[in-house]
């Protein structure tokens, strides 16, 4: 069979010609420089190879290319904004896996302010979905640091969480219906806008969190909410981890519906933000523990400032809060949120770090942070624990920064030792080794120990039933 060179690997010319006929000249990238941006993950943990990058512009085009590649036995790797923290959208080093970018499938098909739904294609960037909802007088609440790059298909495929999970839930809770191209090229249209639909297996939930291993999410019906008419944001220095949790409970007990986000940050992480991020000003300096409180209501007369000040006054008197800065403008609210959102970038600029995206019951978060920090310092002397994240839903990014004098490669070579040290504590506290980032390539070896037995067996049966040839994002999720 004749072949042509695309990227740095051969691909049958007959298949390439048929794909070109389906996708058009904009739909295939074959040059080495053109495919390069698709080969590495955001954290630069993996760098793969691919014969080409396919860029369908519609569900019909995607379905046809899946049929062609399935017939030829070509494995496919879906890619959205390529913001995976665990290598979930990166091809392997073998050079056979074809990257399928859904970036051109980026239309908001429909917004219904009465139904409070948006139908968006997989390539719609999360920030664009937020803006489209806002233009219709609504709110799409999913929010996290990578929202300017991550796509709807990607966040659903990984069941992304983010800053507002405590109020609105993960991506799964924001999804009503899906459109999916199955591994054989069939299109399942489940784009239903129904709150109640009790008609057998809820197939849509199979694909959320599956990381593209069961098929390609091409579009989704997303839940919208009334937009906030009153907001308050405060940056608080707190006594310790227990005081942070106590403050969360005070707000929750006073008015749970008002709490839009509640984020913990360590003094180490805030210090990295101050030194590594240009313009990284911090309103309260020198504390070991901080929290960001974000209150919001769709009522214009909700009295959130009164609520905020009353709770903070109680916490100050109790010694839980040491000091607090309350935003007086939208610019100040954005500046406070920037401290939290730039944590990953600050760590990246500081040097090598190992990410531990874990969750425990909310009540166990202080113990998680204390025990993990001690274990990590003992494991690698001079290393710097940087715990931060979504205290309100129990998801803490228990990250570790390399010692300043240590070789980054030598530090990263200890990644699994570091993850194991944290996960031993997480398991003891009844938690999960992956809260919102997914499994990808990085954590497949953990699945047997954590989800083995009946649970993993069922996952494998589902995979074998839908993708018997194993062509959908191979090497991800399942060990």
UniProtKB/TrEMBL annotation:
Residue ranges constituting the FAD-binding PCMH-type domain according to the UniProt record: 46-227
Gene Ontology biological process terms, A to Z: respiratory electron transport chain
Organism per entry: Siccirubricoccus deserti
Cofactor(s) the record lists: FAD
Key words, A-Z: FAD, Flavoprotein
GO molecular function, one term: catalytic activity
One Pfam family recorded for the sequence: FAD_binding_4
Name by which UniProt lists this protein: FAD-binding oxidoreductase
SUPFAM superfamilies to which the protein is assigned, alphabetical: FAD-binding/transporter-associated domain-like, FAD-linked oxidases, C-terminal domain
Domain of life: Bacteria
Family in the record: Belongs to the FAD-binding oxidoreductase/transferase type 4 family.
């Amino acid at each position: 069979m004749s072949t042509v060179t695309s990227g740095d690997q051969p691909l049958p010319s007959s298949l390439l010609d048929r794909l070109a006929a389906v996708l058009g000249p904009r739909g295939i990238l074959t040059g080495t420089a053109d495919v390069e941006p698709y080969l590495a993950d955001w954290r630069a943990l993996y760098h793969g190879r691919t014969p080409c990058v396919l860029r369908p512009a519609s569900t019909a085009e995607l379905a046809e290319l899946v049929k062609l590649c399935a017939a030829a036995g070509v494995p496919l790797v879906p890619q959205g904004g390529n913001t995976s923290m665990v290598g979930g959208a990166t091809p392997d080093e073998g050079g056979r896996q074809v990257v399928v970018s859904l970036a051109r499938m980026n239309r908001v098909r429909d917004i219904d302010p009465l139904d409070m739904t948006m139908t968006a294609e997989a390539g719609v960037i999360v920030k664009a979905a937020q803006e489209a909802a806002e233009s219709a007088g609504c709110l799409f609440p999913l929010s996290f640091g990578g929202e300017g790059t991550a796509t709807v298909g990607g966040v659903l495929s990984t069941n992304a969480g983010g800053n507002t999970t405590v109020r609105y839930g993960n991506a799964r809770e924001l999804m009503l219906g899906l459109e999916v191209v199955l591994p054989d090229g069939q299109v399942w249209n489940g784009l239903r806008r129904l709150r109640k639909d009790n008609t057998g297996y809820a197939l849509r939930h199979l694909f959320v969190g599956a990381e593209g291993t069961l098929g390609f999410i091409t579009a989704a019906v997303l839940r919208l909410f009334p937009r906030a008419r009153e907001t308050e944001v405060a940056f608080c220095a707190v006594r310790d981890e227990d005081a942070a949790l106590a403050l969360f409970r005070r707000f929750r007990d006073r008015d749970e519906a008002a709490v839009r986000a509640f984020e913990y940050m360590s003094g180490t992480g805030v210090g990295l933000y101050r030194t590594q991020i240009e313009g990284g000003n911090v309103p309260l300096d020198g504390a070991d523990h901080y929290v960001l409180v974000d209150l919001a209501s769709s009522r214009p007369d909700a009295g959130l400032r009164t609520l905020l000040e009353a709770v903070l006054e109680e916490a100050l008197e109790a010694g839980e809060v040491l000091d607090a800065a309350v935003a007086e403008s939208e610019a100040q609210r954005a500046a406070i949120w920037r401290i939290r959102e730039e944590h990953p970038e600050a760590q990246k600029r500081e040097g090598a770090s190992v990410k531990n995206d874990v969750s425990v019951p909310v009540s166990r978060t202080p113990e998680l942070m204390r025990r993990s920090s001690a274990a990590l310092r003992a494991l690698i002397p001079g290393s710097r624990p940087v715990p931060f994240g979504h205290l309100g839903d129990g998801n803490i990014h228990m990250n570790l920064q390399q010692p300043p004098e240590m070789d980054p490669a030598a530090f990263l070579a200890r990644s699994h030792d570091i993850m194991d040290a944290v996960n031993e504590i997480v398991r003891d506290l009844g938690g999960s080794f992956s809260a919102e980032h997914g499994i990808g390539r990085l954590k497949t070896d953990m699945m047997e120990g954590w989800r083995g037995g009946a649970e993993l067996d069922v996952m494998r049966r589902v995979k074998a039933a839908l993708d018997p040839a194993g062509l959908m994002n191979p090497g991800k999720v399942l060990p």
